[in-house]
C-alpha cells in the first residue's frame, strides 16, 4: 500500500489529454485514472470508479488478468491480453489490452499502464487458436482423427478422447511424451522420437505413417502429423493429429484400378511439361506425369484420388463456375495463374490450361497443362518495379527542377531588385533598410540551399548498409537532445517500447527520423495542452513498426492528405515551418525500403507509423 500511496502523488492530469484508450492502476490493482476514450469505450464514470480494484470491475477476467498484471509488475513489457466483449458487459467490441509497467522518475515500478486497441486479424487468428482446437475436437470425433498438443515449456502433453481410443486406453489415462512414444514399436519409435527432436530444434514439421502397439497388444498403422509453433525464435509447443490407417492407405489399390483408363494416354509421360488428369465430375486427380511430380516435389500418392481444390488457392477456386462454363462451351478454359508452394517450401508461380477429354464409356476428364512461370513473373515484377522507380525518379527530378527554377529564381529576382533599389537610393536610412533586407534575403537563400543539400544527402546514402540497432538506445539519444524543448513546454514522452526491440536502419537516418517526428509533435502542439508523445512498437512478418502518437494540432488528411509529404508543404501557421522535414523523412524511410502511414484528427492529435523493413 505504501507504493500505491506514493504513486498517487504523481500528477495524472496529462492522461485527460491522451487520445488513446488508456487506464492506469497502482501496485494494489486500484484504478488511478483513465483517458476519456477508455471511459467512453467501457461506458464508465471516473468519479464512480476511481480507486476501485480494477479486477473487480472485470470479474469475468479475474484469473487471467490478475496473472498478467502480476507479470507486468515484475517488469515484463507489452503483455497482450484479449478482451472478449461477449463475455463482459462493458463494451460491444473485442480488443487487445497491452500491459506495461508504470515507472516513476527513478525507474521504480509503481503500477501498470493498460492501453486498449482494436484487435487485428493476425492477433485474432493467434488468440483464437484455442477455439480452433475445440472445433477440431468436435470434428475429429466424426473423422476419427485425434488431436494433441505438446507444451514444450511445461513439458506436458494433452490430447482428445479420440487419441485414447486409437491407443486403446481408458479415458482417465494421463499422457506424457515419454508414455506416448513408448507405444510405438521397433523402428517407428526411433522415427517418432527423431521427428519430435527435429521439430523442437529445427522447426521441421512431420507427416509420418508408423506402427503403434495398442494396450491390448494389437499392432496398428497410424498416420501422425506434427507442426511446431515458435515464439521469439524458440519452439514453445507442437500441435498435431493422429489417425488409424490401413498400411497401404488403399492408394495402391486405387492406382491399379485406374491403369486401364490411363493406357489411352500413351504420350502422357513423354510430354516435357507438367500434365495432370482430373475427373470432371469429382475434381479428383486421376493421374499426374513425371514432370508434374518434379515440379511439385511430392510423390504420386500425394495427389491421386485427392481433390485438386486441396492444392490451389482462392484465385482458382473463386473461378470454378467460370472455368466450368468455358469447358462446356469451348471444351477448354483460358490460362489461370496462381501461386503454389512445393515440397521444398518454394513459392512457384504456375499457369494452368485445361482441355475437356472424353474417354471410354463417355467418361469425362480434364487434361491440364501446368507451366512454371516463376522466372517470367519475377522478370515482369522486376520490370514493373524498374518502371515505377524510373517514374519516381522522374517525379523527383521534376520536383528539383521546380525548386531550382521557381525558388532559386525568386531569390535571384529579389536580390536583383534590392540591389537596384540600393544603387538608386541616396539616403542613409533607406540604404540601411535595403541592406537589412539583403541580409534577410541571403539567409533565406542559405536556408533553401541547406534544404537542397539535405535532400541530396538522403539520395546519396541510399546504398549504405543498414545495421541492426537497439531502438530504445536511439530513442534515449533523441530524448536527451530534445530535453530542453520538453522542459520548456512541460512535455512528456511515454515509452512503451520493449528494451530488446531492434530494427534494421541506417543510424543517421533513424536519428533524423526520431528527431524530426518528436520535435514536430512538440512544435505543432495545442497551446492549451501539454504535449504528450507515446512511443510503441508492433511486429509482423516483414516490418517492425514504430508508432509515434501525440495530442497536438492534428492534420486534416481529407484536405491535405495528398500533400502531406510534399516539398515545402506546410499545414499550420508556425514561423519555424519549412515544409521539408516530412519530405526528407519519407525519402529516408523509402531509401531503407520502409514506409510511413499516418492517422490524424484535427484538434486531437496524430499517429505517425514508421514501418522499418526487416530485410
UniProtKB/TrEMBL annotation:
Keyword Phosphoprotein recorded: yes
Record keywords, A-Z: Kinase, Phosphoprotein, Transferase
Broad enzyme group: transferase
SMART domains: HATPase_c, PAS
InterPro entries on file: HATPase_C_sf (IPR036890), HATPase_dom (IPR003594), His_kinase_dom (IPR005467), PAS (IPR000014), PAS-like_dom_sf (IPR035965), PAS_4 (IPR013656), PAS_fold_3 (IPR013655), Sensor_kinase/Photoreceptor (IPR052162)
SUPFAM superfamilies referenced in this protein's UniProt entry, alphabetically: ATPase domain of HSP90 chaperone/DNA topoisomerase II/histidine kinase, PYP-like sensor domain (PAS domain)
Pfam families noted in UniProt: HATPase_c, PAS_3, PAS_4, PAS_9
Histidine kinase domain location: 403-615
EC number in record: 2.7.13.3
Full protein name: histidine kinase
Taxonomic source organism: Maribacter dokdonensis
